[in-house]
Design brief:
This protein is α/β, with parallel strands linked by helices. The protein has helices spanning 12-24, 35-44, 61-71, 86-94, 107-147, 154-185, 188-216, 229-245, 265-284, 318-321, 340-350, and strands at 4-8, 28-32, 49-53, 76-81, 99-102, 224-226, 249-253, 261-263, 292-299, 304-311, 354-359, 365-372. Helix 4 links the parallel strand 4 (76-81) and strand 5. Pfam families: HATPase_c (PF02518), Response_reg (PF00072).
Length: 378
């Protein structure tokens, strides 16, 4: 279906010529000879693209522009102005016009202006769809969490989730603003930056949805006889390439005297994967110095096994350290979802264990998981 354009001009000859030019550009044209008729048309059908002359008897183009914006603030209005009337053209931009073209009109200039206006409308619609889908998805996951009673403080969870949504939506709005500026100024660098911002936040939406889905899955702890060092070895092997790609040394320091124990190696593996991945991220931003992550295992006095993940990153401030296990809290900015540590704490709790964080600015961070167990007599 062709996009409709409302053309407003008090001169019949100009309406005829411009109608042909706009139709040749692939649009359906609706005409009005004055502002009153234009507003009457817009009240009956929501036309998004409007081209109007500024100088008209009665209601001029500037007054019409203000009334259009009150009816639909997202309408794209292109103003037609005389060559010497730049003051009115600039005033129209201040009042919300998307563009202006000067007389005598050139068909190519009009077509380019319409294309840019249509691109703005399409970008807004796409971003609105992304945001609506995100809100719908997060609401669905919220209901699942509440119905399964997976969170003790539902009010706190909803508030935290709303904050996460707000952050992503804010990022999308920022990307939209940069994209619109790129279209308005025909600046390829702005367009590239804006699209990168949108792409990044769409990826964050996907990660948030997947993390929520994983978090909502029922947890079943299945202990079995195993080597307590085995999950640590597997995580080291799994994340070694990520560490190397970020110039981070990944060290494995195992207590070789640990006996066979009854543990859930899969759950421990998942916990260590989250912690080690976070530790690598904490080191990758260091510009210089020792970039190292250490995975350590220790015997907890015959009653438990300890898994310790430490890094040499920037560290975590004391006021932030108390919040790292909160729902949807993240120190990674746009890169994080705030679910990794929350899910880790949940798994550790299901294993009747505990997790502690210790850090300070400039001295890295250390996370210690303690899992109660029983030595298996062999």
């Amino acid at each position: 279906m062709k996009e409709k354009v409302l053309l407003v001009d008090d001169e019949e000859g100009i309406r005829t010529v411009l109608s042909v030019a706009i139709a040749d550009a692939g649009y359906t044209v609706v005409t009005a000879e004055n502002g009153t008729e234009a507003l009457s048309i817009l009240s009956r059908e929501p036309i998004q693209l409007i081209v109007t002359d500024i100088k008209m008897p009665g209601m001029d183009g500037l007054e019409l522009l203000q009334k259009i914006k009150k009816l639909n603030h997202e309408a794209e209005v292109i103003m037609i102005t005389g060559h010497g009337d730049m003051h009115s053209a600039i005033e129209s931009l201040r009042l919300g016009a998307g563009d202006f073209i000067t007389k005598p009109l050139h068909e190519a200039a009009l077509e380019i202006s319409l294309e840019r206006a249509l691109e703005k409308i399409q970008i807004r619609e796409q971003l609105r769809e992304y945001t609506e889908n995100l809100e719908h998805l997060v609401l669905e996951k919220s209901k699942e969490l509440v119905e399964a009673e997976r969170m003790a403080a539902v009010g706190q969870t909803v508030a935290s989730m709303s904050h996460a949504i707000k952050n992503v939506a804010g990022g999308l709005e920022g990307g939209m603003f940069v994209l619109e500026k790129g279209l308005e100024l025909e600046n390829q660098e702005y367009l590239r930056q804006g699209w990168e911002m949108v792409r990044r936040d769409v990826e964050r939406i996907k990660n948030l949805a997947m993390d929520l889905l994983d978090y909502a899955k029922p947890v079943t702890i299945t202990p079995k006889e195993c080597d307590p060092n085995s999950p640590a070895k597997q995580v080291r092997d799994l994340l070694l390439s990520k560490a190397q790609n970020n110039n981070v040394e990944l060290v494995l320091d195992m207590a070789h005297t640990l006996p066979t124990m009854r543990l859930d190696p899969k759950a421990i593996h998942e916990c260590l994967t989250n912690l080690v991945s976070n530790a690598i991220d904490a080191c990758q931003d260091l510009l210089e110095g020792d970039k190292r992550v250490t995975i350590r295992t220790m015997d907890g006095g015959g009653l438990s096994v300890k898994y310790i993940v430490s890094d040499t990153g920037h560290g975590i401030a004391p006021e932030i350290l108390t919040k790292v296990f909160n729902s949807f809290f993240t120190t990674k900015g746009s890169r994080g979802t705030g679910i990794g540590l929350m899910a880790t704490k949940k798994l550790v709790k299901e294993m009747n264990g505990s997790i502690m964080a210790n850090s300070g600015l400039g001295r890295g961070a250390t996370f210690t998981i303690t899992i109660p167990t029983a030595h298996v007599v062999t």
